[in-house]
Amino acid sequence: MTEKKIWKGSDQYICDPELAQAFHMARVLAMPLLIEGEPGTGKTELPIQFAKDTDKPLFVYPAGSKSNVEQFVAKFDHVKYLRDSQVEVLNAQREAQGVSKKLSTGGRSTDRLDDYVIRGPGALSYSSPNSVLLIDEIDKAPREFPNDLLYALSHRKFVLPESGKIIEVSEQDMPTIVITSNREQELPTAFKGRCIYHYIAFPTPELMKEIVLKHHPKTDEKVLNKAVDVFYQMRKIGLERAPATRELLNWLKYLNAYDQEEALEHIKEMDSSGILIKTKADMEKVKTRAKYSTTNSI
Amino acid sequence: MFDSLPDHFRSHGLSADIKTLLLVRKSFKRGLITTLGDLYLVLKGIVPTDPSQYGPFAVAFYDYFLDIEIKKGEKLEHAVARSASFKDWKSKKLGDDDRELDFNEITTLVDQFLDEVHLTSYDIQEILSGEAILKTDDPDRKDTAEQDDVSSDEDVTKAADYSKYSLQELKERMERVLEQQRRKHKGGDHWVGEEGRSPYGQRGAAIGGVRVGQQGGGKMARAVIGDRRFYPVDKKAKLSDDNIDVALTLLKGIEEESIEMRLDIPNTIKEGVKMGGLFLPIEREHKEKKTEVVLLIDNGGYSMTPYIEVVTRLFSKMKRRFTHDLQTYYFHNTIYGGAWSDERRTKYLKLDKILKLAKKKCVFVIGDADMGPYELSDSSMKDWQELKEHFRKMVWLNPTIERLWPMSDTIPIFRQIFPMFPLTPEGVEKAVQEMNKKFVKS
Hints:
The complex is a heterodimer.
Chain A: H1 17-28, E1 33-37, H2 45-54, E2 58-62, H3 69-72, E3 74-76, H4 78-96, E4 117-119, H5 121-126, E5 132-136, H6 144-155, E6 157-159, E7 166-168, E8 176-181, H7 189-193, E9 196-200, H8 205-215, H9 221-236, H10 245-255, H11 260-269, H12 280-293
Parallel strand pairs in A: 1-8, 1-9, 2-5, 5-8
Antiparallel strand pairs in A: 3-4, 6-7
Helix pairs in contact in A: 8-9, 9-11
Chain B: H1 5-11, H2 18-29, H3 36-46, H4 54-66, H5 76-81, H6 84-94, H7 103-117, H8 121-128, H9 131-145, H10 152-163, H11 168-184, H12 189-197, H13 199-207, H14 217-224, H15 244-251, E1 257-263, H16 265-274, E2 283-289, E3 293-298, H17 305-321, E4 326-331, E5 338-340, E6 348-350, H18 351-354, E7 362-366, H19 378-390, E8 393-398, H20 411-417, E9 420-422, H21 425-436
Parallel strand pairs in B: 3-4, 3-7, 7-8, 8-9
Antiparallel strand pairs in B: 1-2, 5-6
Helix pairs in contact in B: 2-3, 8-13, 10-13, 15-17, 15-21
C-alpha cells in the first residue's frame, strides 16, 4: 500500500482541517470525495490546488444540463469512422482503375475500432495512475448522470464503446476523485453512499481574512477588517444573492488599487458595491441600509 | 465491530448498515483511526449524506460512544456537563479535589473534555510539529493559570498523567472491539500496535494546556448541535426561509418525458458499412426530459399579504433554476379574463394568450382561493375551467391552513376543479407527485 500523506493545503490554498481530513480519508479509502456547500467556499479549488501542489495530472469534467456518461468516459467518433470506411472503398476503386494516388485516413484503420474512440476525462484519468479527477457541479447534470457513474465508481473500470476495451485501475492507482455540488438538486442516495461526504460551511470572518491574505497578501489590515465586516453584514441582511468569497476577493482587488484612506472612503461610500451585489433589488436594499448607517461611520 | 452501531444510528434517522461497518473496519486497517476524534470524522464522512443529518449524527455519536444524551434543544456543553462520562472523567482528572466548581471552571473543563474527544491524529501531528503550541500558547496560559500555578513545562507533564484516564469509556469499547477483531482477523494487529504505540501516550502530553479541539471536529460538533440548519426540516411546517431549499429540490422533480423518433446515426453507419456503403436510415426512440413551469400567483388582497414575501422568495429562487422555462403571471383574488405579467399588475394579458402556451407546461397556482362568493363570478369560473382543460398538469398551492379550508366559501369550489395542496414542503412534494402522475387522456 502506498503511503498517502495528509495534504493540508498549499501557499495559495487554505484547507480547513476537517476538509483536509475528509480528503485524506477519501484518498486512503480510494473513494470519491463529494463536497457540497455554498458557492465560493473553495470546493473546486481543492483538487486543482492539490494537483498543482503535488504535481499530479488533473482531469476536469464540468457537468452541465447535457452531461452524459459518454462524454465523461469515452465517445465513439462515428463520423470519422464513416469517412474512413468510405475512403477505403474509394481507395479500392481507385486501385482497380489504376490510380496510384490514395486518400489518407490519418493513420487510422477501420479495423482498429480503438482508433475512433475519443476518451473523456474519466477514461483519461483512469488510465493515468494516481491522477486527480474533478467532476465539477454535478448537481447541474441530468438526474441519470450520477446514477450512471455509480458503476464506474464502484467497479473502478470503464468499458469503452464499440472497441470494448476495458480500462481498469487498481485501488492503489485509483485517481483522487473530487465531486462538487452546489446542492441545486438532490443527488441520489445510492450515489452519495459511494462517496465520502463533506459539507463546507461558509468560512468564519477570521478564516476569511486569512483566505483574503493568501490571495492579496499586501492588503492593509484596516481595510481588510472593514471590508470583511461589511461583507458579512451584507450576507446577513437576506439578499436574493448573497455575495460569496469570489466577490469579496474581487472587491479587495479593486480596493487595493487605492491607499488606505481612499480605500476606507470607498468602503464607506459603497460606490463599488456593484462588485458585491448582483441584482437590482439587492442593490436597492443595500442602499437603504447604507443610508441608516452613514451617521455612525467608521 | 461495533455491531449495534447501524441499528443505533438508524434509530436517529440516519442511514447506516453493514457497509458502514465494513468501511469503518477498512479505515481502521488503513490507519485512519487512532483516536476517538478520528473515528468521529470517519463516521461523519460515511454516514451523513446531507448537512441536515449532521445534527442527528452528532447526537447519535455522543450517545453511542460516550453515553452522553443530548436532549432536544440542548447545548452540547450542557449535555456534556451533566453526563456521567464527564463526571467520571472530571473526578479522575481532578483527583481528590472534589470541591464545588464554579461556572467558569466547569466551562473550561467541558472544553478540555471536548478537545480530548475530538482530538484527531491530525491534531497530534500539528502539535508535534510545534505549530499549534506556538499559535495557542499565550491565550491558553491565562485559562489555566487560576487552577494551577505551574510553569508550562510542568503543566505538560502533569497533563500526561490524566491522559490515561481520558475517555476510559472509549478505550474499553475500542479494546472490546480490538479483541473481536483479533479473534476474527489476524490483520487486526496492525492497528492494535499502532494504537498502543502512539496516540494515548502522546495525546495526554500533547493536549496538556493546548486547546486543539477548537479548530477541528470539536468546533464542528459544537456548532452543529443547536443549529437548525443541521437538522432535518419539518416538512409539515409552513414554507419559510429555512425550508425553501427543501421545497425547491422537490420542485425539481417534475418530469416531462417526451418520446420522438430520431435518426440513429451510429447504427445507420454501422449497418451501412456492413452493407458495403449502402446507407439506410435507422431510427430510434429519443426520450427527453424537460420541465417548463408556469406560475399563477395571487398577489393582491389582504389575505395573501402575509405570504407574499415567502412566495416571491421561493419563486425568485426558482427563477434562477428554471431560467428559461419559467413564466409567471399575477392575478388578484381570482382571474377575470386574463392575468398580469408583472408583479405590479400593469401589463395585462388576455386569457387566450396564456392558453397559447404549450399544453405540457406544469402550472402552479398559488393563492388562498378565499374570497367573497360574489367575487367568484361564473365567467371567472369558466376561465379556470378553460385553463384546467388546456394544461394537463395544473395544481393549486394554498398558503392558508389546510384544516380551515372547508370553512371557506370558495376553497371547496376550487378544490373540485384543481388538486389543492398546502404550501408546505410536504404539500409541494405531494403536488409534484401529482404532476408526475402519468397523464391519461380521458
